[in-house]
Amino acid sequence: MLESILSYGLAVGAVYALIGITYNVMFSASRVFSFTAGMLGMLGGVLGALFIAKMGMPAIVGFVLVLACGAVLGLVTEVLTVRPVLKSIEQHLYVLSTLAFALMVQQLTAVEWGTEAQPFPRLIPIGPGWLDQQFWLPMLACAVTIVGLELLYRKTLIGRAFLACAEDSYAARALGLPETQLRMASFALAGVIGTLAGFTGAEMLLAFFGNQSILNFYGFVPVALGGMGSNRGAVVGGLALGLFQQAANFLVGGIFAAVAVFVVFIIVLLLRPEGLAGASAARRV
Amino acid sequence: MTDTAAPAQPARALSLARIEGALPWIALGLVGLLLPLLDDSYIGVIAQRAYIYWILSAGLNLVVGYAGQIAIGWVSMLTLGAYTTAALTAGTATPAWHPYLALVAGGAVGALAGVIVGLPALRLRTFYFAMTTLGFATIVTQVALAWKDVTGGGVGTPGPVFPWPFDPGWGFYYFCFILAALATWMTANLASSRFGRALVAIRDSEVAAEASGVAKSRLLVAVFLFAGALGGVAGGLFASLQSYITPDAFTFEMSVLFFIAILIGGRGSILGPALGTIVLTVLPEFAAPLVQWSTFLYAAMLLAIVLLVPGGIADLLDYKNRRPLEQHREIVPRPELLGRVLGARVASSAITLENIALHFGGVRAIDGLDLEIKSGEVHGLIGPNGSGKTTTLNVISGYYRPNTGLLELDGADLPFDQPQARAGYRIARTFQTPRLVGSASVLENVKIGGTVDGEGSFTESILALPRHHRDEKQIKQAAMQALAAVGLESLANVRADRLQHSELRFVEIARALMLRPAFLLLDEPAAGLSAEEIRRLGALIVAISREGTGVLLVEHHADLIFDICDRVTVLNLGKVLAAGTPAEIRAHREVVSAYLGA
C-alpha cells in the first residue's frame, strides 16, 4: 500500500506541479492568473489520445503535435483573452476572459470528443510497479521541466529577459525589451508545459473533458502553497499535495481527502497569503 | 439658478426616477402573478426555474455586481442547499425533517458555506477568491458523489415535496414566486442602503471606502452570509422542482449561467441581472437543437461581454447619463453653509506626531518627524517631491505603519495600520488622485462619506425597518448640504466619471465633510485647478478650519500655502527643514534656496 501511495501520489503530484508551473509562467509574464492552465492539462490527454489512439500516429509525432497545439493555444490565450484586458488589470477582468475561453474549449471538447472518460494509449510497454509509464512519465516530465526552466532563466539571454519583465515590466520596456513578444513567448511556453502535464499524466487521469476544473483547482493549490511565481515552490507543493491526497484516499476515503485539501488550502491562504515560502507586499496609496 | 431652487430640483427628479424605476418591476410582478391563468404546466416549470435561479442570482448579484468579488463557483450553494433539504426531508442522515424546516436548514447551510468560501476574499486578491469558489464547487460535487449513504452518490436522491399550501403545481409556483419577490425586495433595500454604497465603494475604490470607515471584512461576511442563504434556499426549491437530484444536475456550467446573467445585466443594477436571468433561463427552450452547445454559447457571450461591454446592458441603456452636461460650469462653494454641514462636534484639540520614522527598504521616506496639527488651524506641509509629505499623510490616516515614533490624538495613541478606524476618530482625508466611484452619481459618492453615521444594522436595511429609512433620510440630507457647501449640488445626480477633474476634487472634499471631521487631511487638493478655482478652494479650506476643524494641507502651490495657512512645515528628505508662520518660512534662507527659489 505504501508503494502505491508513493508511486501514485508522486505521479499525480508531478502533474499538479506542472500545472502550477503553467500558472506561474503565465503569471510571471503578465501578472495574470489564467484559467487556461487546467484546460491545457485536460487537452494534453485528450489530444494525445486523439492523435495516437484514434488517428494512429506514431507516439513521438503525436507527442510533438500535442505540444505544438499547446503552444498555439497559449498564443491564442494571450492575444484573445489577456492582452485586451491588461490595461485595466486592477479590474480583474482577466479572470472572466480566460475562464470564458477555457470553458469554450472545454465545451468544444465535450461535444466533439465526448463526455465519457477514454483510455490513453500505453506508449512504453514496460512495467509493472515503478517501471510503469503512468508513474515515471509525469515525474520525468516534471524534472525535465524544472531543470529546463532553471537553465533557461539563469543561463540564457532570453530567459533573463523573461525574468526582467516579470520583475518590472516598465523598466524592462524602458531597456528596450520587446515586452509583448516576451509575453507571447511565455504563454506559448506555458501552453507546452500544460499540455506536457496532461499528456504524461493522461494514462492515470484518462482523456476526460472534466479533468479541466479538477486540474485548475488542484494545480493552483501548489501555487498558493509555494508562493506565486515560485516554480520550486510549486514542485514541492504539488508533490506534497499528491502524496497527501493519495494517503488520505487510501487511509480515510475520498470525502475526507477532498475536504481536507480544501480546508488546508483556505487556512494557508488566510495565514500565509504570500505562500509558505514567499513574500510580497504592495503599496496601495 | 437661484439659491432656493437648487436643492429642490434634484429631489424631485429623484422621486420621478423612483416611480420610473418601479415600472418594470410592477410589470414583471403582474406577469408572474397572472401566469397561472394560462394553465400551461410547461411554461409554469420554466417560470419556476427562472424564479429559483433568480433567488440565487439576487444574492450573488450583491457579491459580484455590487461588491465586485468574482464568485465563479456559487453553484455550490445551490448544490448544498438542494442536498441538505433533500437529505433532511428523506431522513437519510437524521430522523426525517418537515420539508419547510429542511428548506430553512438548506438556507442555513448555504449561509455558512458562503462565509467559509468567502473568507479569502476578506484579505486576498480577487483571483484567490475566484479559485476558492471554483475549488469549493469541485469539492462539493466530489463529496456528493462519494457520500453515498446520504446523497445516493451518482444514483441520486429524491427531492423534497412541500405539503400544502405550497404543494406541487401552482402552489409551489407561487411559493417560488413569493420567495423570488422577497429576494428582490431585500436585495434592493440593501443595495440602496449605506451598506450597498459601501459595497460599491469596496469594488471601485477600496482605499476611499476604508478612509470613509467602511469595515470591509464585517460587511463582506454579512453579504456572504446573506448570498449563501439565498443560494441554499434556491437549492432546496431546485431539488423539489427537479423531484430527483444527482450530482450531474449541478454542473459548473450553471455557475457560468448565473454569472453571465449578472454581467449581461450590468454591475450595480438589480433589474438588469433579473432580466438577464430570465432571458438565459428561457432561451434554451427556444433553441432545442443548440442544447449541447448552450454552455459554449454562454462562455462565448461571457468573453464578448468582458471584451466589448464590460459595463453590461445597464450601461448601454443608461440614456439619462448621455444627456450633455452644461459646458461652462463653475464651482461656487458656499462656505456660509459649512456651519450646518459640520454641526456640533466632539472637541478635539490636536494630532501629534513625535519622532516618526518610516523606511521602505533602504529608503528613508520619513526620518524623525515631529508635527502638530491643531484644531481650527490650517497647517501647510510643503517640500520637494519625495520629501515625505504624502507618506506623512498616509501615516496619520493609518495606511502606513512607521518603524518608530508616536502618533497621538489629544494625548491618546492613534492605532497604526487601521485606515478604516480613522473615520471613527473623525479624521477625514482626500487623495492625490481623486478616488471616487465613477459609475455612481455624485450624490451617492458623497453619501459614502456618511457610512459611519448610520444607526441601523445590516438586517434592518435588508428588511427596510424604520431605522434604515431614518438613516437614509439623514445621510441624504447631509450629503446635499455638503454638496451645496462645496458648490456642486446641481451635479448631484450626474455620474461621477462625467465630471471634470477640478469638480472631482470638490466632490472628494464634500465626501470628507460628511464625516463632520475634527481633522481633515488634504493631499494636493489644488493640483489641476485653475487660478480662480484655487482661490475659491482656499477660501473654502479657511472656512472649514474656522468651524473648528484642523486641516493638514499637503500642497505644491506655494501661493495657496502662504495665503491660507496658519502654520507651515517644510520637509526635505523626510526631515523637518523649517517650521513656523508663513512669514517666517518665506524668509527662511534654506527653504528659499532648497525649494521656493529666489
Q: Would you give an account of this structure?
A:
The complex is a heterodimer of chains A (285) and B (598). Chain A is mainly α and 285 residues long. Chain A has one domain. By secondary structure, chain B is of the alpha/beta class. Among the domains of chain B are: 232 residues, no CATH class; 185 residues, P-loop containing nucleotide triphosphate hydrolases (Rossmann fold, 3-Layer(aba) Sandwich). In chain B, helix 8 packs across helix 17 and helix 17 crosses helix 19. Chain B is elongated and about 85 Å long.
What's the arrangement of secondary structure elements?
The complex is a heterodimer of chains A (285) and B (598).
Chain A: H1 2-30, H2 36-54, H3 59-82, H4 93-113, H5 133-155, H6 157-167, H7 169-174, H8 179-205, H9 211-226, H10 231-251, H11 254-271
Helix pairs in contact in A: 1-2, 1-5, 1-6, 1-8, 1-9, 1-10, 2-3, 2-4, 2-8, 2-9, 3-4, 3-8, 5-6, 5-8, 6-8, 9-10, 10-11
Chain B: H1 5-34, H2 41-66, H3 75-90, H4 99-118, H5 126-146, H6 148-151, E1 157-158, H7 170-191, H8 194-204, H9 206-211, H10 216-242, E2 244-245, H11 252-265, H12 271-286, H13 294-308, H14 312-316, H15 338-342, E3 350-360, E4 363-374, E5 378-382, H16 389-396, E6 404-409, E7 412-413, E8 427-429, H17 442-448, H18 458-462, H19 466-486, H20 501-513, E9 519-523, H21 531-546, E10 550-554, H22 558-564, E11 567-572, E12 575-580, H23 582-587, H24 589-596
Parallel strand pairs in B: 5-10, 5-11, 8-9, 9-10
Antiparallel strand pairs in B: 1-2, 3-4, 3-6, 6-7, 11-12
Helix pairs in contact in B: 2-7, 2-10, 2-11, 2-12, 3-4, 3-5, 3-10, 4-10, 8-17, 11-12, 11-13, 17-19, 17-20, 19-20
